[in-house]
């Protein structure tokens, strides 16, 4: 009995102990599971916090960058509008001074500017209002970039008889030494121009005129390829000049890049160009030579990129010896 009891007690004790042990273990195990779940949750929450902090820092950077871009764009578009207003005002004032003609070069050498239809319409309106002529140099008509299109002012309303369009073989057919060109003008104007031309030069060399006539019969592909070729060279030179520390005015047409040289700390453009030629081994044109007031261009120089790729790349290597401040 006692044994039985004992047995029962032992068994009971054992069983009870086992149950108690199991209960304890399972409570302990449960506690451990809960703890490790909380630890896991904490680690996940921490890493989420870090992720969010990083994302917030990135967002803050983005917001700051966008704010500064917006401010810059607002300022420069206000300046641009101001500049356009001032330019149109200045042009109108110039026309009021008994102006007989305006000489316009688009696409432009040296700036690479391509006048828009809107700008040309404004100039045409002044020509009509003040009964003035537009004499245009359109020698880079086929060399335009970024989808820009050259518009002859002569094609605008009531401009056929108010325009003298000047063009040449030089740039379109890469024959700059030929000096063969042409003028398109209304019959009365053309008659006077022919007379003056006859007295000045008599005429262009006959074989060059024949070759020019043949070149002018080339199809559209030729002109497309020409613009594509120069577009590639423009990208190369812009990259080279920016790497060397020049601030570039991105050309929309022609094959020149005007640059700001103020970062190099030279007294003026002529001194800098001399240094470029003699010490670096790359030639450019001083900006002052393009301004009525030379001082306006004293921190600018013009590069030309109608060159072979090897030549441009070799110039790029040499220009890396410059040290902008
Ligand atoms: C705007 C512009 N017009 C005219 C010329 C010279 O034309 P051509 O070679 O027919 O004399 C140049 C050449 O540099 C030029 O840049």
Shape descriptor: elongated
Largest sheet: 4 strands, mixed
Rg on CA atoms, Å:
38 Å
Helical fraction: 55-70%
Q: What's the CATH architecture of the domain at 98-215?
A: 3-Layer(aba) Sandwich
Global mean pLDDT: 90
Work out the helix count: 7
Describe this structure in words.
This protein has 325 residues and is an alpha/beta fold. Among the domains are: 98-215, 3-Layer(aba) Sandwich (Aspartate Aminotransferase, domain 2), CATH 3.40.640.10; 220-319, Aspartate Aminotransferase, domain 1 (Alpha-Beta Complex), CATH 3.90.1150.10. The chain contains seven helices and eight strands. The strands form two sheets. It has a four-stranded mixed β-sheet with strand order 1-2-3-4, covered by helices on one side. The protein has a four-stranded antiparallel β-sheet with strand order 5-6-8-7, covered by helices on one side. Helix 1 (2-96) runs parallel beside helix 2 (117-129). The longest helix has 95 residues, at 2-96. The model is unreliable at 1-22 (pLDDT under 50). Pyridoxal-5'-phosphate is lined by residues 105, 109, 137, 139, 168, 170, 176, 179, 181.
Structure, briefly:
The protein has 325 residues and is of the alpha/beta class. Helix content is 55%, strand content 11%.
What keyword list fits this structure?
325 residues, four-stranded antiparallel β-sheet, 8 strands, 7 helices, alpha/beta, four-stranded mixed β-sheet, Aspartate Aminotransferase, domain 2, binds pyridoxal-5'-phosphate, Aspartate Aminotransferase, domain 1
């Amino acid at each position: 009995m006692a044994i039985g009891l004992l047995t029962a007690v032992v068994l009971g004790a054992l069983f009870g102990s086992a149950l108690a042990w199991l209960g304890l273990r399972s409570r302990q195990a449960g506690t451990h599971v809960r703890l490790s779940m909380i630890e896991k949750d904490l680690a996940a929450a921490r890493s989420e916090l870090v992720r969010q902090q990083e994302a917030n820092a990135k967002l803050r950077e983005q917001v700051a960058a966008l704010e500064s871009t917006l401010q810059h764009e607002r300022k420069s578009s206000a300046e641009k509008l101001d500049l356009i207003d001032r330019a149109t005002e200045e042009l109108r004032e110039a026309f009021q001074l008994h102006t007989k003609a305006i000489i316009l070069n688009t696409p432009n050498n040296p700036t690479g500017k391509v006048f828009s239809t809107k700008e040309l319409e404004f100039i045409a309106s002044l020509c009509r209002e003040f009964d003035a002529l537009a004499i245009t140099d359109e020698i880079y008509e086929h060399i335009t970039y970024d989808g820009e299109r050259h518009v002859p002012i002569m094609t605008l309303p009531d401009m056929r008889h108010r325009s003298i369009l000047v063009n040449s073989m030089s740039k379109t057919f890469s024959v700059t030494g030929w000096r063969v060109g042409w003028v398109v003008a209304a019959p009365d104007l053309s008659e006077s121009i022919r007379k003056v031309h006859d007295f000045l030069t008599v005429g262009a060399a006959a074989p060059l005129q024949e070759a020019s006539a043949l070149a002018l019969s080339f199809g559209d592909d030729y002109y497309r390829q020409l613009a594509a070729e120069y577009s590639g060279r423009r990208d190369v030179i812009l990259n080279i000049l920016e790497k060397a520390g020049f601030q570039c005015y991105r050309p929309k047409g022609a094959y020149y890049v005007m640059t700001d040289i103020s970062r190099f700390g030279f007294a003026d453009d002529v001194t800098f160009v001399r240094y470029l030629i003699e010490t670096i081994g790359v030639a450019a044109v001083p900006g002052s030579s393009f301004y009525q007031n030379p001082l306006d261009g004293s921190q600018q120089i013009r590069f030309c990129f109608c060159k072979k790729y090897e030549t441009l790349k070799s110039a790029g290597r040499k220009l890396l010896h410059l040290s902008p401040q």
